[in-house]
Specification:
Layout: H1 5-8, E1 10-19, H2 34-37, E2 42-50, E3 61-67, H3 76-85, E4 87-96, H4 104-121, H5 129-137
Parallel strand pairs: 3-4
Antiparallel strand pairs: 1-2, 1-3
């Protein structure tokens, strides 16, 4: 089964993150006392949205999170540029990605199998994520 690229490029964006007096259990999490653990309770409003073609205004989000999405986008540099524009000043872009290996033997192995993997799953798992990020930062 081949997945549609637009679904694989979905990114979570955090509208607002703030400290909350409400324990995590109220949101379905594990309740703990901040006085005994020293932990803060955080509240966030989260939206799942595709960055490509987004109608959100620039500077709309505190944080943009992308997990394993750059492998399936046609132009990952453009996607990261669009994601960066959505951030408020001082906002965070968090990436969890797979990609090119720093070990040559593994990189060779991945490169040999990447076209067949893409054909089956719509994912280029051997992209150079560091290079993509560098192009966005320039």
């Amino acid at each position: 089964m081949q997945c549609q690229q637009q679904h694989l490029c979905t990114t979570a964006v955090v509208h607002h993150l703030q400290e909350s007096a409400q324990p995590a259990a109220a949101a379905g999490g594990r309740e703990s006392s901040s006085s005994s653990t020293g932990l803060r309770h955080l509240a966030a409003r989260i939206t799942a949205a595709a960055v490509q073609g987004s109608t959100f205004a620039p500077g709309s989000f505190d944080t943009v999170v992308d997990t394993f999405g750059l492998c399936s986008c046609e132009d990952p540099v453009k996607v990261l540029q669009q994601a960066s524009r959505l951030l408020k000043p001082g906002g965070k872009l968090l990436l969890l990605e797979h990609g090119k290996s720093s070990w040559s033997w593994l990189d060779d192995y991945m490169n040999q199998r990447a076209p067949a993997h893409y054909k089956t799953y719509g994912c280029w798992y051997n992209r150079d994520i560091g290079d993509i990020v560098q192009k966005v930062c320039m």
